[in-house]
User: Which sequence fits this backbone?
């Protein structure tokens, strides 16, 4: 398994300084906010998105102050959307620990999400990073559209494969795309290079989300979300979408009924998983994930070799091979 510590070697100092700057960016003299911010920082994830920002900038040279602003803005927006997602999904766990809404209830969780969003806006204005703000605002717009499109389609259980790609492109890939584009912008690259890095991030984000959707079918359940969570949320992911078009009438009925009515029945979920695996849904999804991974690599290969490029290659491998 690829170690993230190895991946961040070229940007280790920058990541250490970023953590300090990020903590400063979320400080508040309101006691409850400060307490919740401490809770968030203490339970931070792998920081994949800031890593993408710094490596994308380092690919073209030195790290500027704009890069720190972009990474902080990304992390603020990402954390805010996760908090709001937990409220919408009524989820009590985030990365194996209690979510903000589980500890402080929904009203406070929503307000904390709003607080983080406003901090991101203020940080951008303070540092006059208007281009970065435009990139991030567009990403948040797409993320919201993706969530709403998924909700609309999930209600009717009529998501096509093209719908699925559109949803995850907006929901997940848009933010990782913004990370890579902002890294290139921070290092003052031309529009052509910035567009290439934007597309690189999109392909990486697509692979990231498909891998996330495959976790329910892995034997290792030590992941950031409980096994079966997509079924319980009535989300149609790529393995199921592929399978629905290839199974028998009776098997299709089992899949639909499990998602509609038996989403809390572990035996039914296991039966659904076995159908999906037997008809090739998992293998097909892995194939598509690898295709997006390879598209990202092809873009990366257009740039000169250096430590940052090597780390981005490793980061792409980490994304599709991670266990949680």
Assistant:
């Amino acid at each position: 398994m690829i170690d993230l510590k190895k991946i961040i070697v070229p940007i280790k100092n920058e990541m250490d300084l970023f953590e300090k700057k990020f903590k400063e960016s979320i400080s508040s003299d309101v006691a409850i906010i400060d307490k919740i911010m401490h809770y968030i920082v203490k339970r931070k994830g792998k920081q994949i998105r800031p890593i993408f920002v710094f490596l994308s900038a380092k690919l073209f040279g030195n790290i500027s102050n704009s890069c720190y602003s972009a990474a902080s803005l990304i992390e603020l927006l990402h954390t805010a959307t996760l908090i709001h997602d937990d409220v919408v999904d009524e989820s009590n766990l985030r990365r194996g620990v209690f979510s903000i809404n589980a500890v402080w209830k929904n009203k406070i969780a929503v307000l904390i999400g709003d607080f983080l969003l406003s901090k991101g806006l203020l940080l951008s204005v303070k540092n006059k990073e208007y281009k970065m703000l435009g990139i991030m605002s567009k990403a948040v717009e797409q993320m919201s559209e993706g969530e709403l499109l998924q909700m609309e389609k999930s209600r009717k259980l009529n998501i096509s494969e093209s719908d699925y790609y559109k949803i995850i492109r907006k929901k997940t890939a848009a933010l990782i795309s913004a990370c890579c584009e902002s890294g290139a912008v921070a290092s003052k690259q031309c529009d052509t290079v910035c567009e290439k890095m934007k597309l690189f991030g999109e392909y990486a984000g697509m692979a990231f989300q498909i891998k996330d959707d495959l976790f329910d079918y892995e034997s290792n359940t030590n992941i950031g979300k409980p096994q079966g969570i997509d079924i319980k949320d009535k989300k149609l992911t790529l393995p199921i979408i592929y399978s629905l078009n290839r199974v028998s009438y009776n098997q299709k009925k089992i899949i639909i009924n499990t998602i509609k009515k038996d989403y809390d029945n572990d035996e039914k979920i296991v039966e659904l998983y076995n159908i999906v695996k037997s008809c090739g849904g998992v293998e097909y999804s892995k194939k598509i994930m690898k295709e997006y991974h390879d598209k990202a690599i092809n873009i990366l290969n257009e740039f000169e070799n250096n430590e940052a490029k090597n780390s981005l290659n490793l980061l792409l491998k980490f994304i599709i091979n991670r266990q949680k």
Observations:
- Residues 4-321 form a domain with the Farnesyl Diphosphate Synthase fold (CATH 1.10.600.10).
- The chain has a mean pLDDT of 89.
